[in-house]
Amino acid sequence: MVESALLGEPIRRWLGVPKGALFEEAAQIVSILRRAGFAAYLVGGSIRDMLLGEPPKDYDVATSAKPEETEAWFRKPHYHTADVGREFGTIMVVRHGLTFEVTTFRSEGRYEDGRRPTEVTFDGVDVREDVKRRDFTINGLLYDPIAEEVLDYVGGIEDLDRKRLRTIGDPYARFSEDRLRMLRAIRFVGRLNFTMDQATFEAIQSMAHRIVEVSVERIQQELTRMLTGLYPCLAVRLLEETGLFAHILPNTSSDPLRLLRFQAFEESAYRDISMALATLLSHEPLDRAEQGLRHLRFSNPEIRETLDLLAGVRLLPSLREMGIAEQKRFLRRPLIQKILGIARILVKAEGFPEAPIVLAQEQLSLWDEQALSPPRLLDGNALKRLGYRSGPRFKEMLLALEDAQLTGEICDEASALSWLERSYPREE
Length: 428
Ligand code: ATP
Ligand code: MG
What we know:
Elements: H1 2-6, E1 11-14, H2 21-35, E2 40-43, H3 45-51, E3 60-63, H4 67-73, E4 79-85, E5 90-95, E6 98-104, E7 107-108, E8 120-121, H5 127-132, E9 142-144, E10 149-152, H6 156-161, E11 164-165, H7 171-177, H8 180-192, E12 195-196, H9 198-207, H10 216-227, H11 232-242, H12 244-248, H13 258-266, H14 273-281, H15 286-295, H16 300-315, H17 324-331, H18 336-350, H19 355-366, H20 369-372, H21 380-385, H22 393-406, H23 413-423
Parallel strand pairs: 3-6, 11-12
Antiparallel strand pairs: 1-10, 2-3, 2-9, 4-5, 5-6, 7-8, 9-10
Helix pairs in contact: 7-9, 8-10, 8-11, 11-13, 13-14, 13-18, 14-16, 15-16, 16-18, 17-22
Bound molecules: adenosine-5'-triphosphate and magnesium ion (MG).
Adenosine-5'-triphosphate (ATP) binds near residues 134 and 181.
């Protein structure tokens, strides 16, 4: 069987140490554990990143030391530890403000919420078993900072070289243990511009409906990371092709242009989460888009901004028909540049008209801040002082006053007052 062949002797690859305080400290932790007689390695994403030539953002340590042993060995000057998941074997070691997760070699049972396994075993687990529980071959590499070599029990080096994402072991089994891995798979492919191994892909395809067993918060978190990653178009394509998309956002309609839009999104100057969500949902009626965003528990500001973008881009085509005041009110929206950004994406992807974007840009270069949002000439108190009776009509009057200001009919207090006399004669 492939697995036993892989889990024999590791493949070794020399890899010089990266520079930097973070690596130095991580290597030091490994040395301390080794000197104390434990096995210890750097493990996981940082090795993948090092081999890809990207600076790791953190280093994790895997060791044969039990949590209490790790705590004991780092009860020394300049170090301290924190319990961040003792039951899963993880102790955080801190030095000079830098933090490292040190985790005991473990094998594990099922994952309950896609975050943590429900039961783990430390006893008799060696490093080979520890890498076997990890999700993808490229995340299952070890680094020995003293020998300066990568140790590969799972075929991760070859997969990195071939730019391929593959589960460690049988993909069906690995996705049944933890459904979240289906989304992690797509996230890593989308981040690294890899291809997905066919068996891994097929397993996701056949298990996609089970993604709903993962908490919505975790789904949202993964989706956010995919959409704001380097290759969101690739991630969206895989979400569609595996069928995950329909389960993540069950009430949205199928949308043949989504991929084209994401191609354009990748070239967009603005690429934050609300831009991505607006790109994703640009075909949905606003209420359905809102429903989807609430279902995935996006934050209120994220939802509001996405809906403002969608509403804005839908209004944009009627810019020419708007009066001057209405145009100015539209163009002074704080999100106007992003609204135009979404419109440009739609121009590239599906023939959205370009003319209103050009018009918007022309007007924006014509009108400065002062022209778009002139300081108010009269307020409600002023109306009261002038003898108007306060009430719902005030709002209308103030709006009409601003209209007159925006169109240039009035420009100072005196002209505002006479305009008011004419337009709203006082009832005695
Ligand atoms: P990133 O750069 O996105 O943090 P990472 O590889 O460090 O990528 P983490 O989520 O921080 O990913 O996890 C660290 C390591 O723990 C992974 O590289 C992998 O070996 C293992 N791991 C994390 N989540 C899972 C999971 N759900 N199932 C199996 N192994 C996992
Ligand atoms: Mg990480």
